[in-house]
Every structure is written in C-alpha cells, then in structure tokens.
Amino acid sequence: MMETEAERPQAQDQQAASVRGALAVAAATAALAACGGGGGGAGDSTSGSGGGVTPPKAPSENEAARFLSQAAVGITRAQIARVQAIGYSAWIDEQMTMAGSGTRWDWLKAKGYDAAANIFTQNGFDNVVWAKLISSQDTLRQRVTQAWSEIIVVGIDGLVGAGWQPFSAAAFLDLLEANCFGNFRTLLEGVSTSAAMGQYLTFRGNVKFNAKTGALPDENYAREIMQLFSIGLIQLNLDGTPKLQNGVQQETYTNDDIGGLARIFTGWDFDLSTSDTTTPEFLRRPMTQVAARHETGASTFLGSTVPAGTDGVAHLKAALDIIFAHPNVAPFISRQLIQRLVTSNPSAAYVQRVATVFNADSKGVKGNLAAVVKAILLDDEARNMANVVNPQFGKLREPIYRFLAWARAFNVQSVSGLWNVGNTSNTSNSLGQSPSRSGSVFNFFRPGYVPPNSAIAGASMVAPEFQIVNESTVVAYVNYMQRIVSGANTDLVADYSSLIPMATTSKTLLNELNILLAAGQLSDVTINTITAAIDSMPSDTDARKLSRIYAALTLVLASPEFIVSK
Question: Which has the closest alpha carbon to 101: 141, 62, 63?
Fold first, then answer.
C-alpha cells in the first residue's frame, strides 16, 4: 500500500518519537571507554606469513559478517554468502585480483567536470569519492585505499594555486588505489612525485639553497615523509614498541636529517611538457625535474649519504631507498594499517607478525602490501571470536564507515548517477567527517590519540577516532542518519524490499539489521531497548512498516555495539 497524505505526518511523528530514544543511546557513545580501544587479542600465533590463521572451515554467518566489517566497505548479504562459500583467504585473493572499478579521474572527465567553468571549483569531487565507496564491487580495494588516504594524507582543501582541485585529489586517490596491493617502495615513489603531494606539502617548485638571498629548500615534505609516511618520530622494535636506551626513547631523526633530505626534493615541478594549466591533464602526470633548481650536491640524512653529481631523479630514488631500508618502516606502517582495518591497540605480537611479513613475504620480498593486508586480516587476533567480548579489542567506527555500512547493506543507488552525498564534514548537522577532507596532513585523528580523563587513558590505550567525537558530533550523526535512512536525500535510494516482510515482527527485523550492520554483536540489552521502541509503532500499512524500518535502522546505527567495531 502507498502512504497517504494523512498517514505521512503520523508516521513521521512516530518515527521521530522512536528516534528520540536513540539519542539517549547515542549520547552514551561519547563515553565508550569500556567498549572501544583495541589490543591484546586472544590467541598468540607464531606463523610467519599471516600470524595465527584460523583452521580452514566454513565461517559462520556472524564470523563472515565480522570479517567483512574489517575487510570491506560494508557488509552485504551477497558478500556474507561469498565469504562462507570460499573462506577468508580465497575471498581476499578474489578481491585482490578483481578488475578495478575505473578511475576517479575518468569518472570526472566522463561527467564533464573538466569544463573550463569548473577550474576553480571543487565540483564533482565529493560525488566521485562517494560513488566509488558506495558502489564499487572491489570492496577490499576501496577499504584499503581509504586506509592509505588516512595514513598518507592529501586533503582537497590544501590543493591550492593551480586550479582543478577535484582532479588533483582524484589523481592522488587513484594513485593510492593502483598501489594499495603493490609494493610500499613503489607507492612511496609515486606519492613523492605526485602533483597533488607536491601541492599539498609545498615542495612543488622547491629550489636549492641560494647563497645570495639565504633562501633554503622547503622542508615540509622532507619532514612529513619521515614523520608520518614511513618511520615515525621514535625508533621502534619490530613489534612496534619503542626502543629504549638507558630507559629513554630515541628519536629517529634530527633537524639536520630534515635539512639533508629537503635537498632531495628541490627542482620538482608540474610537468607542462604536453599541456598547460587550462586543462587538468598536467595534474595526472608525475612531477618532473627542473635541473637548474635542483641541489646537485651530496645530501646526508638518517646516517646515509646520497652522493653528489647525479640528477634529481637518481637522487630521489636513492633517498627513498634509504628511507625504505630503515628498520622502523615495517612496524610503523604495519601498526597503522592494523589500526585502520582491525583494532586501535594491536598487541605487540600482532604487530610483530605483520611487520615480519612486511619485511619479507613468502618469497623474501620486502614491502609486499598484498601480503601485509592478508596477514592483518587472517591473523588470529583479528579472526578470534573471543575478542568480540574483549574490552581491549576493537575500534571506534569512523563516521564515514557508519554511513557506508548503511549504504552498502541496502544497495543504495543514485537516481541522477551523480551520487549527490556532498561534503559531510559539518560537525553540527552531518557526519563530521568526509573522505579526503582532512584539515591537515595529520589526518582527521592521530594514531596515538588518547581521550583525556577517560578509562581508555587509564588503561594506557589509544583511541584515534575519538579525536573527532564530542557531544555535538554524536547528536549530529544520529540526526543525519535519521534523515538519510528515511529518504531525505532524494538522490540516494536504498532498497528496503527485503526488510518489508520482516517489519511486522521486530525480532526478525532486528536479527537482520544486527547481522548486516553490527556483525551480530548487538547485546540483549540493546536489542530489548530497540524492540520496545519498535513494538510501540503500528505496522498495518506499508508506510507504517517503513516507519518501523526507519526507526529500527536509526536505533541500530546509534547503538554502541555498531559504533564500536569489534
């Protein structure tokens, strides 16, 4: 039955009343210390290639859904069935070899965003980013690409001075996607010559020392490639714990190291050899060397020297080889990837197992990111279901993944084909986070962030995502999702057809939502609370059934067990 004009206000009032109850649940998520964080998982394995890998058996429905909550952009019935049919390892292999879903750059071109009128706008960027995340079938690749975008950061708002911001940011994301299962050394070189990174960290146009003016090379990228993209600030053991000398942590580099490395990043600029800036094409090409601006002398950093007398390209390759050889790279990068995919506080043993794979895959190759991702997802600490009830395991689900969990679960489509989700960064009426819109190179949140005066701090744990959580964002998120699930964005159409027959029986409806959104982890208390709210709503028409579905969705999306991924 279709909803009548008379029924609509009543249905909306009933939904709003139920959702007000959700706000009480959501408010509790601001103090999730007992539920979040991550860490010392049960089961320690010494397997060299993937940590402790669970014995080959068909995963249960809950196990498959939980795996997808770590490995995919969202949980779907089809993917649950696929994981159960072929197992974790084969699913990863299938996803890694799956054909890509096209580039963001080509999507922007196909939609006409390269028209001259768009040169100084951000038109199209949010559209293409959300299109990829919501609709691409290579869900593991999208998940890992998003993880890399939060480790090696370029935010679109920082791409100034050349126009075509959406194309520059899209090219950078395409670069991350193309290399997310490749080799880290290759990825590092691609990043270090990308036009977007040259813009964002201001070394595009960088010039050598000028004795007359005293001008020195820009040190921005030299600092961040070490601090954020490769080795970090503190010398690490293979397991990610700090190396100590007389009980004191040791720094990885000094200001002199930054100055030495900055010499490498002189002379790099846009490649305008085949097109000018009136079209965006120059931003898709790697930067090129301008020999007259490059410092040809020797550059010393991290205890090594790149010798004088070679060109800028050779200097860059030699410098990146030095960074890649640093013992910190494996634990520093491995731990952050674990944090982005599985848990905020991985045990030292988990980090060491993954870092060992980073240093040498089954063929002895260092930096094989496909092997690293597989090791992370198959490790016993990730797969052991005992960790569902381990208060030290898990991570706060980022707002964008909360939205994507809904969008993927219910096969959201774009009516216009333009995926008009928009910029969801607003902290008072939206998600409070939007892909590739970090305000700084330090990402939306720091990997070592500790909520002050919290149980998490008292337990000596970290909770990175809590850095973007406050009273305002908690309420804004619930209000935003209430509007979204009920169709307020008319360009986004969710398929609730499978839920309509379940809507009259709250237990059946919640069981389905529990699997698709929370990997079966909703507590009895939460289920009973939501059941009471849903059962107070009538279900005698399709319109009222939809209202029950909307309310149930909003309540589940606001529940602590959904917001904390375990």
Answer: 141
